[in-house]
Write a structure and sequence with these properties.
Shape: elongated
Radius of gyration: 22 Å
Strand content: 15-25%
Distance between the termini: 66 Å
Helix content: 40-55%
Mean pLDDT: 87
Structural class: alpha+beta
Low-confidence stretches: none
């Protein structure tokens, strides 16, 4: 094996190993599967060149497993029936547990939220099976629902499950809402890609959705 080929192979092996380690450090399910798939492909090629067939077999199986999980996750991301939107009381014990447990992460994205407030809100849990993947808190003002919180569990942050609350707008129409508005203080809002319109208010830019449209 030439000097150049040997160094290329070393770089491939080290790169695949680094990618594998980086993948298992991910908290997001989709990102973990994508990076782990890429690492498995690289290590399959690396071990095949060296003729280490047990490692080739193991990494090839990991490629298949990751590909299957990725297909499932990508289908779930667009499947409205995969997620269940449950309305709960704003003082619900489990809701309070989620808000308090994830307080630091929640305030990173919604710094103006009063986590301890329990009155005057509508609260929704977004569920995937028995796992809570998101929380939406709304404050009614006439026919407008103001989004106080649209939080997603870091594991499911690539899914933006809060959008299923807006897609299933009948949940909101049942409360008499015709419009939804976000908070200008919200950090890194994703609403432009799901049908909300950018607006400019006295406190800064925000997004709105016309439920009748």
């Amino acid at each position: 094996m030439s000097w150049l080929a040997a160094h290329w192979l070393d770089a491939l092996g080290w790169g695949g190993s680094a990618l594998l380690i980086w993948s298992v450090l991910q908290t997001r399910l989709l990102r973990f599967r994508m990076l782990n798939l890429a690492a498995s492909v690289v290590l399959t090629v690396f071990n095949a060149v060296l003729g280490i067939w047990p490692m080739v077999a193991m990494n090839f199986v990991l490629v298949l497993i990751n590909a299957w999980h990725l297909r499932t996750l990508l289908r779930q991301r667009e499947d409205e029936t995969a997620f269940e939107v449950l309305e709960v009381d704003p003082d619900d014990t489990y809701l309070r547990h989620v808000l308090v447990t994830h307080r630091a992460d929640i305030l990173t994205f919604q710094p103006d939220l009063d986590v301890d407030a329990e009155t005057g809100r509508l609260a929704f849990l977004v569920q995937l099976g028995d796992e809570t993947v998101g929380v939406v808190l709304l404050r009614p003002q006439g026919e407008t629902a103001h989004i106080e919180l649209d939080w997603v569990n870091p594991r499911f942050r690539d899914f933006a499950p809060g959008r299923f609350v807006w897609r299933r707008s009948q949940v909101l129409r049942e409360h008499g809402f015709t419009r939804v508005e976000t908070s200008p203080a919200m950090v890194a809002p994703y609403y432009a890609g799901i049908g909300f319109h950018p607006e400019q208010g006295p406190e800064g830019p925000y997004f709105s959705l016309d439920l009748a449209g």
